[in-house]
């Protein structure tokens, strides 16, 4: 149980285009989902927290217009990187939490490369 | 503010050696949770353990053991009789109960050489 999937696992896009990453909880309802970013050989940095049906809460320094997060259902959250630039290239990881529990279940990550 | 420090950036040992990964944390909360995750080269985070602030008992799971000491704000992780498959980046993380946000340490890259 407690499986979280991400799609796509890898994506290459051209500079200026937008790319959407999906995060799904497969066998539980995720009231809260988290999006992290990880640069090569670095730690995970929390980008935003999203609760189903409400606006995401972004961490300081994260551009909300650049990284659009939607949590429309209890099993799906999406992260859209708008007008992507090479500096947006990174490993993006989502996690999901099923309400009241402290443990987060992590997805396998999406490697974004912007050329 | 919460902070997690993993001072060891990289560790390299020979197979079958014991190795300890250090984790020191800072928080003003009286209720908090500590975690260890393993990140193999494939990238996915593998959950290893969660410990709450009220439970200072050490834990052993097979070759893995954890030493939680509130007096020194440390939550160290020991692998005994290391194996090549243990090679990965290991992250220590902290969350407060309310926000449930995880704050990660910088990670320790562990390499087990045959």
Briefly characterize the structure.
Chain A is mainly beta and 115 residues long. Chain A has strands at 4-7, 10-13, 19-25, 32-38, 44-51, 57-58, 67-73, 76-81, 90-97, 105-106, 110-114.
Keywords, separated by commas or semicolons:
heterodimer, A: 115 residues, mainly beta, seven-stranded mixed β-sheet, four-stranded antiparallel β-sheet, 11 strands, globular, B: 114 residues, six-stranded mixed β-sheet, 12 strands, 54% strand
Find the structural class of chain B using helix and strand composition.
Answer: mainly beta
Report the C-alpha radius of gyration of chain A, rounded.
13 Å
Oligomer: heterodimer
For the termini of chain B, the CA-CA separation is 41 Å
Poorly predicted tracts of residues of chain B: none
Overall SS class of chain A: mainly beta
Round the Cα radius of gyration of chain B to an integer and report it: 14 Å
Major beta sheet summary of chain B:
6 strands, mixed
Polypeptide structure, described:
The complex is a heterodimer of chains A (115) and B (114). Helices cover 0% and strands 52% of the residues of chain A. Chain A contains no helices and eleven strands. In chain A, strands 2, 4, 5, 6, 9, 10 and 11 form a seven-stranded mixed beta sheet that branches. In chain A, a hairpin with a 5-residue loop joins strand 5 and strand 6. The N and C termini of chain A lie far apart (37 Å). The radius of gyration of chain B is 14 Å and the shape is globular. In chain B, strands 2, 5, 6, 10, 11 and 12 form a six-stranded mixed beta sheet that branches. A four-stranded antiparallel beta sheet of chain B has the order 3-9-8-7, with no helix packed on it. Chain B is mainly β. Chain B has no helices and twelve strands. Helix content of chain B is 0%, strand content 54%. Chains A and B meet through strand 5, strand 9 and strand 10 of A and strand 6 and strand 11 of B.
């Amino acid at each position: 149980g407690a499986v979280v999937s991400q799609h796509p696992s890898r994506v290459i896009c051209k500079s200026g285009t937008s790319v959407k990453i999906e995060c799904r909880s497969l066998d539980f309802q995720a009231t809260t989902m988290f999006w992290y970013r990880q640069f090569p050989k670095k730690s995970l940095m929390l980008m935003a927290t999203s609760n189903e049906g409400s606006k995401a809460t972004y961490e300081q320094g994260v551009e909300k217009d650049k990284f659009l997060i939607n949590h429309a259902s209890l099993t799906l959250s999406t992260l859209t990187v708008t007008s992507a630039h090479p500096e947006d290239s990174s490993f993006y990881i989502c996690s999901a939490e099923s309400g009241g529990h402290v443990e987060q279940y992590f997805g396998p990550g999406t490697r974004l490369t912007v050329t | 503010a919460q902070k997690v420090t993993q001072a060891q950036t990289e560790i390299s040992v020979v197979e079958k050696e014991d190795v300890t990964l250090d984790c020191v944390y800072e928080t003003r909360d009286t209720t908090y949770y500590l975690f260890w995750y393993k990140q193999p080269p494939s990238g996915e985070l593998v959950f290893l353990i969660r410990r709450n602030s009220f439970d200072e008992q050490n834990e052993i799971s097979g070759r893995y053991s954890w030493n939680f000491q509130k007096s020194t704000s440390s939550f160290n992780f020991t692998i005994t009789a290391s194996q090549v498959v243990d090679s990965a980046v290991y992250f220590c993380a902290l969350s407060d109960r309310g926000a449930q946000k995880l704050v990660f340490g910088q990670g320790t890259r562990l390499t087990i050489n045959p």
